């Protein structure tokens, strides 16, 4: 594979499932046996994108948008109905064994570990399957034990682990053979904040140190904000946005918030610049929202401070959750990047 060649290349990719249709009752069962009928379900509809080596890409969408189906085609689990898929220059479905040696996959709600074995035994087996040399395996095991805090877990059967412990173990199992491409499907689902931060830090370090290409599908937008510079948004099987996360913020983060701590409670209505409004008020705390295309933060702050004694204030950037809601509401229909 050429250094300039994309790690992942997808062109006009399409996946259609044929779902059996059956009328109710015994008659319907007999009819379905002799004259089966099928309905077509288009899960992925003519999508194209490429991912260069070493990039972390967020692949996001609502449930049923086609994210997991795409990942299954990239890993070779599913064959495309139409279109081209190349991972490290290979067709993942036709060259499944060669492809599997170069990729790692974490499915947040499934496990690749042996349920009744101690974690270290599962890791030993996986290392042998992938022909990881004993010396390198020992180095990686020590590294992962430290960064993922696996020390006390190595002798523990997987079935006895908490959800957060299992996910740290899954990451170690996925990366023990040092794959060049990693797919993370909901890697932090159901985890507490502390465990999420550990996993995010580990993913960033693997990407920085080894140039690992990462495709991240998640409903946790905190994962996207922490890890990804680029996002691909899919809806109803089609890509509706592919570009920098910063552009999403700039284009759709129209409203910003600003909070003031005041010396005295607000007693009279404020005179504010156009596009600014009060959205919350407590004893000595005032929350405003303003349209950044109509007023600047300094204009809003100056207006408030000319009418109230302000002790402190803080500016809040737009939340990615609200931005994505705008996108699904149709905000991208006239403004999709090329």
From TrEMBL:
Keywords: ATP-binding, Nucleotide-binding, Transport. The gene is natA_4. SMART domains: AAA (SM00382). InterPro entries: AAA+_ATPase, ABC_transporter-like_ATP-bd, ABC_transporter-like_CS, ABC_transporter_ATP-binding, P-loop_NTPase. It comes from the Bacteria. Residues 28-261 form the ABC transporter domain. This is ABC transporter ATP-binding protein NatA. GO terms for molecular function: ATP binding; ATP hydrolysis activity. Pfam families: ABC_tran. It comes from Calidithermus terrae.
């Amino acid at each position: 594979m050429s250094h300039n060649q994309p790690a992942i290349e997808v062109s006009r990719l399409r996946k259609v499932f044929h779902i059996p249709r059956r009328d109710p009752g015994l008659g319907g069962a007999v009819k379905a046996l002799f004259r089966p009928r099928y309905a077509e379900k288009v899960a992925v509809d003519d999508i194209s994108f490429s991912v260069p080596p070493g990039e972390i890409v967020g692949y996001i969408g609502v449930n049923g948008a086609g994210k997991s189906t795409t990942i299954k085609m990239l890993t070779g689990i599913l064959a495309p109905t139409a279109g081209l898929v190349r991972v490290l220059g290979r067709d993942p479905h036709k060259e499944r064994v060669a492809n599997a040696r170069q990729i790692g996959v974490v499915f947040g709600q499934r496990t690749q570990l042996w349920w009744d074995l101690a974690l270290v035994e599962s890791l030993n087996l996986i290392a042998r399957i992938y022909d990881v040399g004993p010396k390198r395996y020992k180095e990686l095991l020590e590294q992962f034990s430290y960064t993922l805090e696996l020390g006390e877990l190595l002798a523990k059967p997987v079935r006895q682990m908490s959800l957060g412990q299992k996910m740290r173990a899954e990451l170690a199992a996925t990366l023990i053979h040092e794959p060049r491409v990693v797919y993370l499907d909901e890697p932090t689902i159901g985890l507490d904040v502390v465990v999420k931060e550990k996993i995010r830090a580990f993913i960033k370090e693997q990407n920085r140190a080894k140039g690992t290409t990462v495709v991240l599908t998640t409903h946790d937008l905190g994962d996207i904000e922490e890890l990804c510079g680029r996002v691909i948004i899919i809806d109803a099987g089609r890509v509706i946005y592919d570009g920098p996360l910063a552009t999403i913020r700039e284009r759709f983060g129209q409203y910003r918030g600003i909070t003031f701590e005041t010396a005295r409670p607000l007693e009279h209505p404020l005179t504010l610049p156009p596009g600014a409004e009060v959205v919350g008020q407590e004893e000595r705390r005032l929350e405003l929202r303003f349209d950044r295309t109509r007023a600047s933060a300094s204009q809003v702050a100056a207006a408030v401070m000319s009418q109230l004694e302000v002790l402190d204030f803080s500016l809040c950037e737009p939340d990615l959750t609200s931005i994505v809601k705008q996108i699904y509401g149709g905000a991208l229909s006239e403004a999709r990047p090329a």
